[in-house]
């Protein structure tokens, strides 16, 4: 079971496969590998499987219809059932901070434990192969007032709703760019919030430039129609080519200004309209979470939305032999693609470890499905790539880095007066990106500002520590991975 | 049409319990995080920033942004969006880095 895992078989180390992330990709990879005969450890930060897409209330909240907040819930419940029936060692509450290849070719996965990783029991897992299914986090672009309480991530509002059954306000504007906004607005409205507007910076017309990707992915079109119908039912207007360019309020959100944008996302003067609300849910797409892979040297590729994903071969292997990736880590494409890639990776891993060939019918079918959905994902990413004009809605006083409270003015000064030409130099001069979140919230903005008017390099997504680790944990590492800390999950 | 998130999913939660926020009593449901319990009570900010003293609360909601850091039972820098609420938890507004009592 997912909420209180039955104690898995404790197998002799190393596992055949360690899977990091128990969302759609990781679950699919873990159960497939386990069913093919591999010993599998499945690590995830959360106490429950499902990742962000299938995030759901804890059992104590007694949700009779958790599927009311989800698309395609049965796909998840099927994976959950297979996980329970498999011999997979599910390790919930494990925050992986580093992965290391040992001299004998095996991998060591280092994790801290507990709901927020502050538990006293660091863990090391060894495995012959590694599958990274770490998903994505939400991309943010700053604007005046975005640090006010009541401004929350669009994905964040949905996550808090899905797991905690709470809303950040009663009148919630949903803004930014990307298909997630429609899903978020539909969920918030269904849960009782008034959504006075969905504000999308791009248009939807760019999808029409790639009719082949649309026609071959009818499921995606049906999903969009479903959200469209949901918004109609709740009378939620959608404003395209517009952005929230300012949030009003002293200690919390009282209203937002919505401004029309030109094709480059430049605000059109004189078009601002004020909308009263008590919360704003905002996001500009998703960023693959790949620091565990970049730290060990995996090759990346630039995606059409300006983020970095992992470069993968036809069977989901990274440039580092023995390290596979699936789902959003290779580019954001959604839960169905993630499930497909997870299974494909698991079959390739099993073939490698068991010395069998993997070119059979099922693998070919998975590859075709993966390629078809990847093509759609690339169209989607291109349609919602931020235009360069967004920087025009920043004032010098707008905080860019939320952690270190570094304003746009200070970043601009570092670029214009002090000669910084890349995000790293801006960071060294201003501390932007040096705080708790390690640049996850400000990375895109700092990279754009550092590029002046040129094309911004995607943030490098390099974080040697993927999550904060206490010095005491580091001090306890005795350098002998052959004698790992107790890898067994809590016997609770 | 459902009026609340709990209605939407047909929630039949275990009995609620109380935590405190800066001494004020807040009702939490079992299975909620500290951040969810505070949102449920209409509280959106439980931290002030190190430099500007500005209020902050949950932002990314999935443990990535660290804006929701709270002091829980005297321990600072807990991510409220991840930490489950427990009966009797004392949550206090975290000022700055949360270690002001240390004279450095």
From TrEMBL, chain B:
InterPro entries listed in its UniProt record: 2Fe-2S-bd_N, 2Fe-2S_ferredoxin-like_sf
Name of a matching Pfam family: Fer2_4
Record key words, sorted: Oxidoreductase
Name of protein: (2Fe-2S)-binding protein
Originating organism: Streptomyces tanashiensis
């Amino acid at each position: 079971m997912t909420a209180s895992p039955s104690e898995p078989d404790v197998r002799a180390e190393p596992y055949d496969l360690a899977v990091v992330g128990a969302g759609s990709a990781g679950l699919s990879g873990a159960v497939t590998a386990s069913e093919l005969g591999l010993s599998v450890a499945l690590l995830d930060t959360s106490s429950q499987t499902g990742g962000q897409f299938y995030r759901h209330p804890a059992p104590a909240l007694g949700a009779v219809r958790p599927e009311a907040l989800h698309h395609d819930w049965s796909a998840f419940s099927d994976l959950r059932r297979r996980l329970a029936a498999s011999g997979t060692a599910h390790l919930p509450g494990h925050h992986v901070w580093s992965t290391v290849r040992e001299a004998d070719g095996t991998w060591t996965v280092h994790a801290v434990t507990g709901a927020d990783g502050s538990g006293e029991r660091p863990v090391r897992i060894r495995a012959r192969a590694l599958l990274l299914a770490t998903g994505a986090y939400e991309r943010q672009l700053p604007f005046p007032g975005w640090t006010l309480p009541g401004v929350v991530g669009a994905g964040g509002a949905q996550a808090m709703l899905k797991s905690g059954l709470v809303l950040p306000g009663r009148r919630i504007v949903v803004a930014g760019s990307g298909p997630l906004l429609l899903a978020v607005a539909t969920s918030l409205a269904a849960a009782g919030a008034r959504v006075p507007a969905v504000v999308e910076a791009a248009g939807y017309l760019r999808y029409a430039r790639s009719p082949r990707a649309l026609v071959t992915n009818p499921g995606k079109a049906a999903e969009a129609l479903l959200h469209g119908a949901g918004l109609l039912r709740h009378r939620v207007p959608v404003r395209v080519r517009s952005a929230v360019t300012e949030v009003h309020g002293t200690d919390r959100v009282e209203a937002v200004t919505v401004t029309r944008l030109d094709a480059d996302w430049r605000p059109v003067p004189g078009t601002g309209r004020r909308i009263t609300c008590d919360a704003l849910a905002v996001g500009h797409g998703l960023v693959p979470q790949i620091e565990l892979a970049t730290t060990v040297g995996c090759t990346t590729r630039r995606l059409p939305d300006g983020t970095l994903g992992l470069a993968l071969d036809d069977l989901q292997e990274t440039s580092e032999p023995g390290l596979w990736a699936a789902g959003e880590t290779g580019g954001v494409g959604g839960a169905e693609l993630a499930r497909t890639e997870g299974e494909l990776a698991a079959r390739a891993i099993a073939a490698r470890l068991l010395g069998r060939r993997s070119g059979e019918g099922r693998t070919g079918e998975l590859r075709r499905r993966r390629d078809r959905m990847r093509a759609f994902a690339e169209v989607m990413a291109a349609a919602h790539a931020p235009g360069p004009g967004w920087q025009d809605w920043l004032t010098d006083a707008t905080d860019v880095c939320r952690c270190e409270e570094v304003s746009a003015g200070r970043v601009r000064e570092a670029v214009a007066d002090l000669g910084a030409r890349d995000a790293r130099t801006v960071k060294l001069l201003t501390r932007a990106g040096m705080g708790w979140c390690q640049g996850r919230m400000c990375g895109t903005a700092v990279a754009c500002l550092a590029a002046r008017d040129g094309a911004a390099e995607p943030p490098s997504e390099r974080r040697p520590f993927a999550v904060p680790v206490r010095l005491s944990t580091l001090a306890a590492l005795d350098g002998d991975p052959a004698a790992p800390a107790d890898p067994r999950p809590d016997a609770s | 049409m459902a009026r609340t998130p709990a209605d939407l999913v047909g929630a039949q939660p275990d009995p609620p319990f109380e935590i405190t926020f800066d001494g004020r009593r807040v009702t939490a449901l079992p299975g909620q995080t500290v951040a969810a319990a505070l949102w449920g009570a209409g509280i959106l900010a439980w931290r002030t920033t190190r430099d500007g003293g500005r209020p902050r609360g949950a932002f990314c909601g999935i443990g990535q942004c660290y804006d929701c850091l709270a002091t829980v039972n005297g321990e600072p820098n807990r991510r409220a969006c991840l930490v489950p609420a427990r009966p009797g938890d004392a949550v206090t507004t975290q000022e700055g880095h949360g270690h002001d009592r240390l004279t450095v």
